[in-house]
Design a protein that fits this description.
Layout lengths: L18 H15 L5 H9 L6 H14 L2 E6 L2 E6 L1 H10 L5 H23 E7 L4 E9 L2 E10 L2 H13 L1 H14 L14
Antiparallel strand pairs: 1-2, 3-4, 4-5
């Protein structure tokens, strides 16, 4: 059975350097994500976790702009990349030329990036010093509606910062767990024990 490119890759080699593969990967990502993306956002996603070398990425994007595979369109104050129809079709036809692990890695990086962006807009976490200890405030909103406004006490700044960091990692899951706990919470039933040796 012949060996493939994937067979020679290890986890510490997950960085594309071949410019044609990077073009296909970027086109594939933009086709899959199918949403407006700024130059800064795309650079951060593509070069995060060592997916693509920054200098290779910069050269490839410049080439794609020159060839018309990518265009920059203005929307308000922001500029966004738009993938040409030919590049969209090419991304689908040639995606197999880029190993699956790279395709998965850039999609994962993109989804995490946009989830973090949404969380930053919808969830505010603040640490407030008190006379004794700290309060970690969490406010979750969705389309202008406040879903949760909660304050949690922490005895010192280190614990307050740790708590805030953990909430920021996955605020959606935190909110879901609070709701689950609230809906499953039951009235306190004390354990009754008789005392015989009085």
């Amino acid at each position: 059975m012949p060996y493939t490119y994937d067979d020679y890759l290890t986890e510490d080699m997950l960085s594309l350097h071949d410019e044609m593969s990077v073009k296909i990967l970027i086109s594939y990502f933009l086709r899959q994500i199918n949403r407006p993306i700024t130059p800064v956002q795309l650079a951060e996603i593509a070069t995060s976790d060592g997916i693509v070398n920054y200098f290779v990425y910069s050269s490839v994007v410049e080439s794609m702009l020159e060839d018309g595979m990518l265009t920059l369109e203005k929307n308000g104050d922001e500029e966004y990349y738009v993938l040409s129809e030919a590049a969209r079709a090419g991304a689908e036809s040639f995606k197999q030329q880029v190993p699956q692990r790279f395709r998965n890695k850039i999609l994962s990086a993109g989804l995490k990036f946009f989830a973090r962006l949404k969380n930053e807009n919808d969830v505010k976490v603040a640490v407030e010093p008190q006379e004794k200890g700290y309060l970690v405030g969490v406010t979750c909103t969705d389309m202008g509606t406040t879903l949760m406004d909660l304050k949690i006490y922490a005895p010192d700044e280190e614990q307050a910062d740790l708590l805030a960091e953990k909430i920021r990692l996955n605020p959606t899951d935190f909110y879901a767990k609070v709701i689950d706990f609230a809906t499953e919470n039951e009235e306190y039933e004390p354990e009754v024990k008789e005392v015989d040796d009085l």
